[in-house]
C-alpha cells in the first residue's frame, strides 16, 4: 500500500509463513496437519499479530457436514504431528466454505481481517 507521504508498504507475505518469536512456521505444514483430521473439509493458516511473539499461528477451519471437532481436539491432533510452537493458538470455525480467488487460492488476508474483527467484538 502507499501511504500519504508516498512510502510503499508490503502488506502481504512474500512467503506463506508465520514468524513466531523468531521461529519460522510454514503455513502449508500446519494446514497439512489440520487437513489430516477426518472432520476438516477446508483449512487455511495465517499469522495473527501478537505483542510478545510478533505473530501467533491462527487457523480458519470449515468442518465437513456432521464434523464435531473442537479447537482443543484439533490442537491435540496437530501436536501429535508437528512441533508444539507450530500448533495454532487461534482457531476459528467458519460456517461456509473458505473464500477463494479466481485461481482457487484462499483469500487469507481478507479472511484474517474479517476474523480478527470478529474476535475483537
Mind explaining what this structure looks like?
- With about 120 residues, the chain is an alpha+beta fold.
- The protein has one domain: ANL, C-terminal domain (GMP Synthetase, Chain A, domain 3).
- The protein contains three helices and five strands.
- Strands 3-4-5 form a three-stranded mixed β-sheet.
- Helix 2 (about 70-80) links the parallel strand 4 (about 55-65) and strand 5.
- The longest helix has 13 residues, at about 110-120.
- The protein is globular.
- The two termini are about 25 Å apart.
Keywords:
121 residues; 3-stranded mixed β-sheet; GMP Synthetase, Chain A, domain 3; two-stranded antiparallel ribbon; 3 helices; alpha+beta
Q: Helices and strands in order, then pairings?
A:
Blueprint: E1 17-20, E2 23-26, H1 27-35, E3 40-50, E4 54-63, H2 71-79, E5 90-93, H3 108-120
Parallel strand pairs: 4-5
Antiparallel strand pairs: 1-2, 3-4
